[in-house]
Specification:
This protein is mainly alpha-helical. The protein has one domain: Arp2/3 complex 21 kDa subunit ARPC3 (Orthogonal Bundle). It has six helices and two strands; from the N terminus they run αββααααα. A hairpin with a 6-residue loop joins strand 1 and strand 2.
Length: 201
């Protein structure tokens, strides 16, 4: 028992750290939803940036856990969605697809961050390649939100896919590119600082 006790304590400590980081991720997503401009039918929020940062900082597993936890407490009625909304009815609205799109988005960004940050990965030690991996990951993650969100927007509103593009994609492209750039810079900088520290991934 004495041989395995330190290892068990380390596992518990790691699990507690993961749980704490997931809670932080949920809090960041909730806070970013309140920073919104009430466009219709899709509001402008900072949640895409939050998803990229969460995926980049926490990795795919804890990142997905954060998004699922956020959606769960929102469905339970907590006012964590844009404009202080909460409750299951939000998932019947025009933005539901975007919310569910956060799940593949955070997973993609988390995988890109893990690949870029692992010392023995194929991009380890190459700053330009690591930045490229993060940039591609951020763009693919941002696209994943729209891949899920646009079809739901078109169907739920009855506006059709072409109108959904004009209402739910084109007005946000420039902003999403800027968010991706900010996220890549933040994740890359954070990885450089914590490269020699124990990983939570």
């Amino acid at each position: 028992m004495k041989v395995y006790l330190p290892r068990m304590e380390a596992v518990r400590s790691s699990a507690a750290q993961r749980a704490a980081m997931v809670l932080v991720g949920i809090g960041i997503l909730a806070a970013s939803a309140w920073l919104s401009v009430p466009f219709y039918p899709v509001p402008l929020t900072m949640q895409t940036l939050a998803v990229l940062l969460i995926g980049g900082a926490l990795g795919p597993v804890a990142g997905v856990s954060s998004v699922i936890g956020y959606l769960a407490i929102g469905a339970a009625g907590a006012p964590v969605f844009h404009g202080g909304l909460g409750g299951a009815l939000v998932f019947a609205g025009p933005t539901a697809g975007y919310l569910f799109g956060f799940i593949p988005a955070v997973f993609i960004m988390g995988c890109a961050s893990r690949l870029a940050g692992t010392r023995d990965s194929v991009v380890g030690g190459r700053s330009a390649r690591r930045l490229l991996v993060l940039a591609v990951g951020a763009l693919l993650a941002s696209a994943a939100v729209y891949v899920v969100g646009l079809p739901w927007l078109a169907v739920s509103t009855g506006m059709g896919f072409q109108k959904a593009l004009h209402a739910g994609l084109y007005p946000f492209l420039l902003g999403d590119l800027l968010k991706a750039a900010v996220a890549v810079g933040a994740v890359y900088g954070g990885r450089a600082i914590s490269q020699r520290r124990p990983s939570l991934f």
